[in-house]
Amino acid sequence: MDITIVYRMLMFFFLSFLTINICIDYYVYLVSLLVLKITYSYIEPKFRELLPVDKKAVLITGCDTGFGHFISIRLAKDGFIVYAGVLDLNGKGANKLKDRKLPNLHLVQLDVTNSMQIQEAVNRVQKTSGGLWGVINNAGFGIPGDIEFCLLDHYRKCQEVNLNGQIAIVKAFLPMIRKSKGRIVNVSSVMGRFPWPGRSNYVITKHGIETMTDSLRLEMAKFGVGVSMIEPGAFSHATGFCSDELVRQGFVISCH
């Protein structure tokens, strides 16, 4: 048999096999998406039935930008009474939240490193809603840089905001959460589980959040309080690693 014919036959079978596999993978992908969509449409109403959110109060830190900003909007739209902690009540992020004109979204001046502001937030929640069902510990901060070149002040600031700040918020609002048998959600990062070059000051604090959250979960189980942790991945703009301020200071060139 002519070698050219053999070659063409082999190529035909190979391409046919490849095409069939691609088609199968494509249809499996489509079927999987369809199953997920059907499952979600069935499960979501069930969750809403199990968790009536009307008049449940939630405090969220770090709502000027990123995750906190959008979580506060979403929960307010879902019917929660939301206390959105911001660093600047007249800042750009706060004004965007005000523009939403959501009647159950309340802005709170809240620097998690400021004990007076934390106590004022506690007093306001107690006075206006009488209690609290949930806390989302979202405020965070990070400065890129190798250990050799990072200043100790960078480490101190990260620890004060990311770790000590979360602990301070937990301690301040835990009595109300325990009374309502509510939930605490601490926002960590995938960086809390692995070493990352150039992110040591951030990684250290996130690892601390992981162990603190696990300890808190065990301590609160007997009170019926849920303690969860979220570990976001590569959301550089939401975490502030690509903030305009860091670009201006020369810590990063650009993240676009």
TrEMBL record:
<dbReference type="InterPro" id="IPR002347">
    <property type="entry name" value="SDR_fam"/>
</dbReference>
<dbReference type="GO" id="GO:0016491">
    <property type="term" value="F:oxidoreductase activity"/>
</dbReference>
<dbReference type="InterPro" id="IPR036291">
    <property type="entry name" value="NAD(P)-bd_dom_sf"/>
</dbReference>
<keyword id="KW-0560">Oxidoreductase</keyword>
<keyword id="KW-1133">Transmembrane helix</keyword>
<keyword id="KW-0812">Transmembrane</keyword>
<keyword id="KW-0472">Membrane</keyword>
<dbReference type="InterPro" id="IPR020904">
    <property type="entry name" value="Sc_DH/Rdtase_CS"/>
</dbReference>
<protein>
    <submittedName>
        <fullName>Uncharacterized protein</fullName>
    </submittedName>
</protein>
<dbReference type="GO" id="GO:0008202">
    <property type="term" value="P:steroid metabolic process"/>
</dbReference>
<comment type="similarity">
    <text>Belongs to the short-chain dehydrogenases/reductases (SDR) family.</text>
</comment>
<feature type="transmembrane region" description="Helical">
    <location>
        <begin position="12"/>
        <end position="36"/>
    </location>
</feature>
<dbReference type="Pfam" id="PF00106">
    <property type="entry name" value="adh_short"/>
</dbReference>
